[in-house]
Amino acid sequence: PVHGEYRHLKRHARLATDLGMSENNILIADIGNCVELTPDGIQFGESVSSGSRLVDGGSLEDRENSVVMKDRKHLSEDGIFVITACVSERTGDLLSEPSVVNRGFVMPNNADYNSDIRHIVENCVDQVDVRADTDGSELTAAIKKQVKNFIYKKTKQNPVIMANIVRV
């Protein structure tokens, strides 16, 4: 038997013995087992590695340990918030209302936290010296931390938080 689930393989083996084939000539191989056929008979050879693999963009990765798969799992389970703030490079002030977009995140009781998150972003911009934070890393980190804490306190969930700072 060479095809099907284990129960099918067992049934195929029984069918072969019912038709008169010797049990010495029947093997049920598991995934990764090699079967050697010789003039003297049939036997198991060396096993080969097997398992689920991810083919993504031409690269082959171990599915269980892949960073890509871990990220995809996190996104699928917890969702994502993308926050964009446009700040003046000269004054450090917000130039427009921060944008808050979420995907894959279920709001409990149809709550809308976007206005609260915008307020958090506004506070972060006020607290961080945006003009001295030339690469935006300090402001980005502050927004991510405070939004993550806020959402966790409200929902006990940990969505991915992406904060983008546009300097004009």
From TrEMBL:
Task: List the source organism.
Answer: Candidatus Borkfalkia faecigallinarum
The Ribonuclease J C-terminal domain covers which part of the protein?
Answer: 68-168
Q: Which Pfam families match?
A: RNase_J_C
Please give the superkingdom of this protein's source: Bacteria
Name of the protein in question: Ribonuclease J C-terminal domain-containing protein
